[in-house]
Amino acid sequence: MTKTVWVGLIIIALLVGLFIGYCIWTSTWTMPQALKYDLFKDILTIVLAVLAVGITVIGYGIYLILSERLKTESASTARIETQIGSIRLFIQSGFTFWRSYDNSRKRQKQYLEMAIELTEIALSYFSKLPDDEAGKRENDKLLCQIKNNLAYYYAERNRTADGDLAKEYVEYIHERLSKYSDLREAWQDTYEFVHQQYGS
Predict the structure, then answer these.
(1) Residues 186 and 101 in one domain
(2) 125 partner at 20 to 30 Å CA-CA among 52, 117, 138, 161?
(3) Which among 172, 163, 180 has a CA at the least distance from the CA of 193?
(4) Residue 60 and residue 132 in one domain
(5) What gap in Å lies between CA 169 and CA 126, rounded to an integer?
(6) Tens digit of pLDDT for each residue in 44-70?
(7) Which residues constitute the domain of residue 19?
(8) What is the pTM for the complete model shown?
(9) How far apart are CA 176 and CA 186, in angstroms?
(10) What is the DSSP letter of 136?
(11) Angle separating helix axes 184-198 and 163-174, nearest 10 degrees
(12) Which burial class, exposed, middle or buried, applies to 93 when counting CB atoms under 10 A from its CB (0-12, 13-18, 19+)?
Protein backbone atom coordinates (compact mmCIF):
# COMPACT_ATOMS: atom_id res chain seq x y z
CA MET A 1 0.00 0.00 0.00
CA THR A 2 1.12 3.54 -0.67
CA LYS A 3 1.85 6.15 1.96
CA THR A 4 -1.41 7.94 1.09
CA VAL A 5 -3.51 4.85 1.89
CA TRP A 6 -1.69 4.39 5.22
CA VAL A 7 -2.34 8.03 6.16
CA GLY A 8 -6.05 7.58 5.37
CA LEU A 9 -6.26 4.40 7.47
CA ILE A 10 -4.50 6.08 10.41
CA ILE A 11 -6.92 9.05 10.25
CA ILE A 12 -9.92 6.71 10.27
CA ALA A 13 -8.49 4.60 13.14
CA LEU A 14 -7.81 7.73 15.22
CA LEU A 15 -11.30 9.08 14.62
CA VAL A 16 -12.98 5.81 15.51
CA GLY A 17 -10.85 5.61 18.68
CA LEU A 18 -11.64 9.22 19.63
CA PHE A 19 -15.35 8.71 19.03
CA ILE A 20 -15.48 5.57 21.15
CA GLY A 21 -13.48 7.33 23.87
CA TYR A 22 -15.84 10.31 23.72
CA CYS A 23 -18.91 8.08 24.07
CA ILE A 24 -17.44 6.33 27.10
CA TRP A 25 -16.19 9.57 28.69
CA THR A 26 -19.42 11.59 28.23
CA SER A 27 -21.51 8.90 29.86
CA THR A 28 -19.91 9.93 33.16
CA TRP A 29 -20.78 13.65 32.78
CA THR A 30 -23.50 15.28 34.85
CA MET A 31 -25.15 17.86 32.60
CA PRO A 32 -28.56 18.44 31.04
CA GLN A 33 -29.56 15.85 28.42
CA ALA A 34 -30.17 18.55 25.76
CA LEU A 35 -26.59 19.84 26.14
CA LYS A 36 -25.22 16.31 25.92
CA TYR A 37 -27.22 15.80 22.71
CA ASP A 38 -25.94 19.04 21.13
CA LEU A 39 -22.36 18.19 22.07
CA PHE A 40 -22.78 14.66 20.69
CA LYS A 41 -24.23 16.05 17.44
CA ASP A 42 -21.35 18.50 16.97
CA ILE A 43 -18.70 15.90 17.71
CA LEU A 44 -20.39 13.38 15.40
CA THR A 45 -20.48 15.99 12.59
CA ILE A 46 -16.75 16.67 13.02
CA VAL A 47 -15.94 12.95 13.15
CA LEU A 48 -17.98 12.25 10.01
CA ALA A 49 -16.38 15.17 8.15
CA VAL A 50 -12.86 14.02 9.03
CA LEU A 51 -13.87 10.42 8.29
CA ALA A 52 -14.94 11.55 4.81
CA VAL A 53 -11.51 13.14 4.36
CA GLY A 54 -9.86 9.86 5.45
CA ILE A 55 -11.97 7.84 3.01
CA THR A 56 -11.13 10.34 0.24
CA VAL A 57 -7.42 10.01 1.02
CA ILE A 58 -7.68 6.20 0.89
CA GLY A 59 -9.66 6.38 -2.35
CA TYR A 60 -7.01 8.61 -3.89
CA GLY A 61 -4.28 6.23 -2.73
CA ILE A 62 -6.08 3.27 -4.32
CA TYR A 63 -6.52 5.32 -7.50
CA LEU A 64 -2.76 5.99 -7.59
CA ILE A 65 -1.98 2.28 -7.12
CA LEU A 66 -4.40 1.17 -9.85
CA SER A 67 -3.30 3.95 -12.18
CA GLU A 68 0.37 2.98 -11.85
CA ARG A 69 -0.41 -0.71 -12.32
CA LEU A 70 -2.53 0.01 -15.40
CA LYS A 71 0.21 2.20 -16.86
CA THR A 72 2.81 -0.54 -16.33
CA GLU A 73 0.58 -3.27 -17.79
CA SER A 74 -0.43 -1.22 -20.84
CA ALA A 75 3.23 -0.35 -21.55
CA SER A 76 4.15 -4.03 -21.27
CA THR A 77 1.28 -5.07 -23.57
CA ALA A 78 2.23 -2.43 -26.14
CA ARG A 79 5.86 -3.60 -26.07
CA ILE A 80 4.84 -7.25 -26.59
CA GLU A 81 2.45 -6.38 -29.44
CA THR A 82 5.20 -4.37 -31.14
CA GLN A 83 7.58 -7.31 -30.75
CA ILE A 84 5.06 -9.75 -32.24
CA GLY A 85 4.37 -7.32 -35.08
CA SER A 86 8.12 -7.18 -35.81
CA ILE A 87 8.33 -10.98 -35.78
CA ARG A 88 5.51 -11.22 -38.34
CA LEU A 89 7.17 -8.56 -40.49
CA PHE A 90 10.50 -10.44 -40.54
CA ILE A 91 8.77 -13.74 -41.35
CA GLN A 92 6.88 -12.15 -44.24
CA SER A 93 9.97 -10.33 -45.50
CA GLY A 94 11.94 -13.58 -45.41
CA PHE A 95 9.19 -15.36 -47.32
CA THR A 96 9.12 -12.55 -49.94
CA PHE A 97 12.87 -12.97 -50.52
CA TRP A 98 12.47 -16.75 -50.74
CA ARG A 99 9.73 -16.29 -53.36
CA SER A 100 12.03 -13.97 -55.33
CA TYR A 101 14.72 -16.67 -55.11
CA ASP A 102 12.24 -19.31 -56.31
CA ASN A 103 11.01 -17.05 -59.15
CA SER A 104 14.60 -16.55 -60.32
CA ARG A 105 14.70 -20.34 -60.86
CA LYS A 106 16.96 -20.55 -57.84
CA ARG A 107 19.79 -18.63 -59.50
CA GLN A 108 19.76 -15.56 -57.24
CA LYS A 109 21.35 -17.12 -54.14
CA GLN A 110 21.49 -13.75 -52.35
CA TYR A 111 17.69 -13.81 -52.10
CA LEU A 112 17.81 -17.12 -50.27
CA GLU A 113 20.50 -15.76 -47.93
CA MET A 114 18.31 -12.75 -47.16
CA ALA A 115 15.31 -15.04 -46.53
CA ILE A 116 17.36 -17.03 -44.02
CA GLU A 117 18.81 -13.95 -42.34
CA LEU A 118 15.43 -12.25 -41.89
CA THR A 119 13.75 -15.42 -40.60
CA GLU A 120 16.60 -15.98 -38.13
CA ILE A 121 16.00 -12.42 -36.86
CA ALA A 122 12.32 -13.34 -36.40
CA LEU A 123 13.40 -16.38 -34.34
CA SER A 124 15.74 -14.20 -32.27
CA TYR A 125 12.90 -11.73 -31.54
CA PHE A 126 10.60 -14.61 -30.62
CA SER A 127 13.11 -15.95 -28.08
CA LYS A 128 12.85 -12.62 -26.22
CA LEU A 129 9.10 -12.94 -25.62
CA PRO A 130 8.06 -13.65 -22.01
CA ASP A 131 7.29 -17.35 -21.41
CA ASP A 132 3.58 -16.75 -20.80
CA GLU A 133 3.31 -14.94 -24.17
CA ALA A 134 5.40 -17.48 -26.08
CA GLY A 135 3.19 -20.28 -24.74
CA LYS A 136 -0.05 -18.84 -26.15
CA ARG A 137 -1.54 -20.87 -28.98
CA GLU A 138 -1.29 -18.13 -31.62
CA ASN A 139 2.35 -17.44 -30.69
CA ASP A 140 3.24 -21.15 -30.60
CA LYS A 141 1.85 -21.34 -34.14
CA LEU A 142 4.02 -18.37 -35.08
CA LEU A 143 7.10 -20.17 -33.72
CA CYS A 144 6.18 -23.25 -35.77
CA GLN A 145 5.90 -21.07 -38.85
CA ILE A 146 9.36 -19.60 -38.22
CA LYS A 147 10.92 -23.04 -37.71
CA ASN A 148 9.14 -24.48 -40.74
CA ASN A 149 10.35 -21.66 -43.00
CA LEU A 150 13.90 -21.79 -41.68
CA ALA A 151 14.09 -25.56 -42.05
CA TYR A 152 12.90 -25.27 -45.66
CA TYR A 153 15.34 -22.45 -46.46
CA TYR A 154 18.22 -24.40 -44.90
CA ALA A 155 17.29 -27.44 -46.97
CA GLU A 156 17.20 -25.23 -50.09
CA ARG A 157 20.69 -23.95 -49.30
CA ASN A 158 21.71 -27.57 -48.57
CA ARG A 159 24.73 -26.89 -46.40
CA THR A 160 25.81 -29.84 -44.27
CA ALA A 161 26.31 -27.51 -41.29
CA ASP A 162 22.58 -26.62 -41.33
CA GLY A 163 21.39 -30.25 -41.39
CA ASP A 164 21.03 -30.91 -37.67
CA LEU A 165 19.23 -27.63 -37.05
CA ALA A 166 16.87 -28.12 -40.01
CA LYS A 167 16.01 -31.64 -38.78
CA GLU A 168 15.49 -30.36 -35.22
CA TYR A 169 13.06 -27.74 -36.52
CA VAL A 170 11.04 -30.16 -38.64
CA GLU A 171 10.79 -32.60 -35.76
CA TYR A 172 9.46 -29.77 -33.60
CA ILE A 173 6.73 -28.88 -36.10
CA HIS A 174 6.03 -32.53 -36.96
CA GLU A 175 5.04 -33.11 -33.31
CA ARG A 176 2.49 -30.30 -33.65
CA LEU A 177 0.85 -31.31 -36.95
CA SER A 178 -2.32 -32.44 -35.17
CA LYS A 179 -2.64 -29.07 -33.37
CA TYR A 180 -2.58 -27.00 -36.55
CA SER A 181 -4.34 -29.08 -39.20
CA ASP A 182 -4.70 -26.09 -41.55
CA LEU A 183 -0.90 -26.09 -42.05
CA ARG A 184 -0.40 -29.87 -42.00
CA GLU A 185 0.20 -30.22 -45.74
CA ALA A 186 2.78 -27.40 -45.99
CA TRP A 187 4.61 -28.58 -42.89
CA GLN A 188 4.60 -32.18 -44.08
CA ASP A 189 6.18 -31.05 -47.37
CA THR A 190 8.92 -29.27 -45.42
CA TYR A 191 9.46 -32.36 -43.26
CA GLU A 192 9.90 -34.58 -46.30
CA PHE A 193 12.09 -32.07 -48.16
CA VAL A 194 14.46 -31.65 -45.20
CA HIS A 195 14.85 -35.43 -44.79
CA GLN A 196 15.33 -35.78 -48.54
CA GLN A 197 18.14 -33.16 -48.46
CA TYR A 198 19.84 -34.26 -45.26
CA GLY A 199 18.78 -37.88 -44.90
CA SER A 200 17.11 -39.47 -41.89
Answers:
(1) yes
(2) 161
(3) 163
(4) no
(5) 15
(6) 777 777 777 777 877 777 777 788 888
(7) 3-67
(8) 0.68
(9) 13
(10) S
(11) 150
(12) middle
